[in-house]
Each structure stands twice: as C-alpha cells, then as structure tokens.
Amino acid sequence: MTPTPMLGAVLATFTQRRSLAVGLAFCGIGLSSFAFNPLFQLMVENYTWRGALLILGGLSFSLIPCGALIHTQKNSEAPVQVDSDRGSSCSALLQRISTYLELSVLFERPFLTYCLAFIFSDASYFIPYVHLVAHSRLVGFSDYQSAFIMSASGITNVLGRVVLGWFADLGYMRIIHSAALSLFLTGVFTLLLPVSGSYPALIVVSLLYGFTSGALICIMYAVLPMIVGLERLNGAMGLLQFLLTGGPLVGVPLSGWLRDITGNYTVSFVVAGGFIILSSLTLSTLPHFFSCTDPPNPQRNSPDNNNKGTHSEMGPMKHPSIITDKSDHSEMPSQTSSCATASN
Fold first, then answer.
1. Cα separation of 219 and 157, whole Å?
2. Is there a contact between 135 and 22 (Cβ–Cβ < 8 Å)?
3. What are the two backbone dihedrals, phi and then psi, of residue 293, each rounded to the nearest 5 degrees?
4. pLDDT digits 0-9 by tens, 192-216
5. What is the per-residue pLDDT for 92?
6. Number of helices followed by number of strands (H, E) in the chain
7. Cβ atoms 183, 283 nearer than 8 A
8. CA 24, CA 113: separation in Å to the nearest integer?
9. Helix, strand or coil for residue 336?
10. What is the DSSP string of 11-31?
11. d(CA 101, CA 86)
C-alpha cells in the first residue's frame, strides 16, 4: 500500500519527464538494497533474526510522516456524474462506485494487456532479490560476499532507474519500446545468473541485472498514464496494484518449490527469466505497438462523447512531454521516433 499513493502523486504531477521523475522517486529502494543487505546480515548475527525484524519494523514507522507529506494536484475534471433522478436507485449507486473506482478500464484491452505483462514481470522481479544471496552461498561464496552481490546490484539499480528514465524521456524511442527492451534484457540477465560460475562473473551479471531491472519501475509505471489517461490514473493505479498482488504470490513460492525439488536455484532463475521475457512479448501485443508514432491521448468515456468514438484503443502511447492537462484536449503533433525518420 505504501508505494501506491506516492506513485499516483508523481505520475499525476509530472506530465513532462515522467519516467525520470518516477526513477528518482524510487531511488531509495535501490539505496536500501545496497545498505540493508550487509546491515541486516550484521543484525542477524548480533540480535538473531527476531531482533533484526523488530529493528526493521521500528524503522518502518518513519513511513508515517513521509506519507503525511504526500499530496497531489486536484483533477480539474470531476468523474462523470449520474442523473439526480436516479440517485437513490441501486443501479445508480453501482454506477457511481464504478465511476469512482474506474472499473471501466477492466473492460479495455490495452489496460488488461498491460496488467498481464506487469504481472508476469512482477512474478519474477523479486526472485533474484529473494534467492540470489542463498544461491551465492550454495555455490561456495561467503556470507559477506553473497550480501555484497545484492548490494552491488542495488547500486546499479539506482543508476538504472535514473539513467533509463532520463533516456526514455529523450524521445529517441517510444516509451513502450523502451519498456519492452528493458524487460527483455532483464530476462536475459536473469537467465545468466545461475550459469555464472565464478565470483567476478556473478558480480558482473548481477550489476547488469540491477541496471536493466531499474527500468521496470521508472518506465513501466510511466506507461500507465498513456494507456488510461490522467483523468483515470488514480483509479487505474489502485486496480493495477490490486492485480499485481497475484504475481509475487505465485512467483516467489513457485521458485522456492522448484529449489526444493531440484536442490539448487538454477531452474528457479530460468523460470524467472522466462516470465520476464514473456512479459516483454506480451507488451508487443498492445495496439499500435509496432507503430513509430504515438496514438492520440485516451479520454474518459462520458455521455457527451460516447457518440464521438472517443473510447481509447491505446490512446496510451502519447509521449509524456506533450501530454497536457487542458480540458479542451486540443490536438498537438505526435512525436516521431527515430524509426519513423529511418523509414523516410
């Protein structure tokens, strides 16, 4: 629950350089991976695992004042209202609930495809963070060497969030293409983790995995406003987070079960890498994915525009640098990527 309101605030506030803004906002996760792995190992040795968890629980209380400072700008366009004559009926109540929760996005193919791709990646994203230290110990490295591998991966994860977010906002590639490419590379490096026999090789692959996996946060979340629009962002974010819970609930236990029946983590990492590559391929099924230009902005369906065909069939792909909050939704020229230039 903690990242959801922060993500919604960042995505709704920044209409330009959105990928970079999300990457900077989530830098703390990578920094904590660098600092807390050796620190947690030290706390376990001195206070046992129960004492270490109590200390981490106490540190988590610092989220309360930080969360109290998060706020977002109010949307100038209120959700579609139901007729006052039907305000007391059950159907009107259900319609109002559906409007505020933005349940209409569940019936749109682009949003469902995006959620499926995110579920595949989220099912495998945590597996290296959960099992890489144990895998390193299993192949013969010391406790502190194993912890350092995750710390080094956390540092490159921070760099990846910032660098890849900055690159995505430059406009050389459509953001959806940047997300698919980053997912594919992350899957490849996950597949290479169990076959890296020496300690230097494992360090290098872990560094590359940390760098490319940073895009899973800054770029993947930046795609969401392009799919549902700013008007429906908060409701769609809540639905996305709800659906994403299924990924880790299946992926991490599955990797542990594979470890139990095989005796090592090789199959676990192979399955994780396969899921992430499958996520990249799922993104390629989005409408207009292979187009070199961005489709128009998505708009909320309302009684006034239902007859105008404004239902978003991948209005997602407008580049964030040209998304505006103006209510008239005046058309602006679509940004053209480098592949469009090459085709001319």
1. 13
2. no
3. -120, 160
4. 998 887 888 999 999 999 889 887 7
5. 79
6. 16, 0
7. yes
8. 27
9. strand
10. HHH-SSSHHHHHHHHTHHHHH
11. 19
Determine if residue 337 is left, alpha or beta; phi over 0 gives left, psi from -120 to 50 gives alpha, anything else beta: beta
Write down the residue that tokens 């908060």 correspond to: 234
- Full-model pTM: 0.68
Mean pLDDT, the chain, rounded, equals 75
pLDDT tens digits along 116-148: 998 999 888 888 888 888 888 888 888 788 888
Mean of pLDDT values over 50-64: 81
SS3 293: strand
Enumerate residues 6+ apart whose C-beta is below 8 A from 311.
108, 301
User: Cβ distance 138 to 265 under 8 Å?
Assistant: yes
Closest by CA position to 232, among listed 43, 100, 119: 100
Cα–Cα nearest to 116, from 247, 223, 306: 247
Contact 115, 240 (CB under 8 A): yes
Distance of CA 92 to the CA centre of its chain: 34
CA distances from 174 to 9, 10, 278, 305 (A): 23, 20, 20, 28
Residue 310 has pLDDT above 60, yes or no: no
Read off the amino acid at residue 107.
Answer: F
Q: What is the distance between the alpha carbons of residues 268 and 251, in angstroms, rounded to a whole number?
A: 9
The number of angstroms, rounded, from the C-alpha of 219 to the middle of its chain's C-alpha atoms is: 7
Q: What are phi and psi of 278, to 5 degrees?
A: -60, -35
